[in-house]
Amino acid sequence: MSKQNFILPLLLTVGLIIRLILMPISAHSDLFAINNYPPLLIRQGVFDIYSYLDKKSPTLFFYPPLTYYLIGTFQYFDQVFSSTFLNWMDTQRALFENGFKGQASDYIIAAPNPHIFRDLFLAKAPYLIFDMLSLCVLWNFFKKNYLSKYAIVVWVFNPALLYNSYIFGHIDIIPVFFILAAFYFLKRDSKLSFILLGVAGALKLYPFMLVPLLVLIYSKSRKEMINYLLLSFLPLMFFLIPTMLNNPSLAISAFTVKLFQAYNGNIHGWEYYSNLIKYFIIALSYIILLLISWKSKIKDNFKMAVGVSLISILLLLNFVYRAHFHYLLWLAPYTILWFKNVKVATIIILIQALSFASYKILVNPLQAGLFAPLNPVYFSSIPAFNEILNRYLPYKIFSTLGFIIFSLVSLIIVVSIIYDIIFQEEVSYTPITSRLLKRNP
Fold first, then answer.
1. How far apart are CA 395 and CA 338, in angstroms?
2. pLDDT tens profile 202-234
3. How many other C-beta atoms can be found within 10 angstroms of the C-beta atom of residue 284?
4. What is the pTM of this model?
5. CB neighbours (10 Å) of residue 431?
6. What string of DSSP letters covers 25-88?
């Protein structure tokens, strides 16, 4: 085996080892929140999680229903490897429903588990599986000569991915896989692509922001538009059936009104109105993206789809009040697909990660506190890096600089994408009716 052929397997092996090391020793309380309700599916046969939560407390909410069913399915098989995992989640759920609040260290102390490392590994095992599946999709992009094989290395060592899935312990890699698969099939089977986007949306709602953009780009008729929209929302509607049968209004409010209230209920004064202004900017920018997708036609529809999707996620990260650092993983598929040059993609990912982290990761539970499984008392007491630095230099300088850099890089990316779509590709602007008539005489 030549040296060049040896490097890629070596790097992939190192990436796997890093994942295996991180999986059992770190966690955020969100990992517990994701895992402590699905045992109800196994133990009590609770299929309508939203009605269950509504009876417990009107303020409780969970992720879209497919998340509940998917994690519950994995937990069913986890019983083969652990006799303590479900009991641990039951104890944590009882604590939460009785008003207990805290970080990962608090839950670990309040609900001790002698097999915590094994059970944390099992909780993150679905992430590793879907991460590997994502690599398979990227490899197929390489086989189609769309990406360099070293784009896989960029994926494997993406700090946002390592932090999100293997340190923080969030579910985002699963919908990201379905989005990546959806984009892979856009060139082969657009109907399947929209179903896959719908599956991603049934796990986490943000992929639905992409659906109207892609529908406008790929539809050849109004009938096709309707079909694509129906296919996209079909998975969510299917998994909402148990709640719709019990309480139709709750099926909608459970992850719309309640979700908004949970994220914005404790914001008051200027902060609240500033938040509304940001949402207005997102809405206005999104309308412009819709117009670009609707009015423009370029030779490479796939490039158009990747570009407008990348812009839409950048809008969320820059203007949503509670856009957390681990959401940075949402950018990964589009960054790698748009910036085919591996060096450019690597530089952008690193700059985004460092700048975004500088003003989004500012407390112990998002830093050393994530390693509370090793020693909850010790790691929860370590001061945050920014607190230590602030003793010598005003940290606000660094956080402000990080905010400016991330915003500026986002703006440069957005402008370059729009410029590339409008001026570097063969583009025509026609009313949608004329466009549809031309395609369907």
1. 34
2. 999 999 999 999 999 998 889 999 999 999 999
3. 11
4. 0.90
5. 10
6. T---HHHHHHHSSTHHHHHT----HHHHHHHH-TT---S-HHHHHHHHHHHHHHTTT-SSHHHH
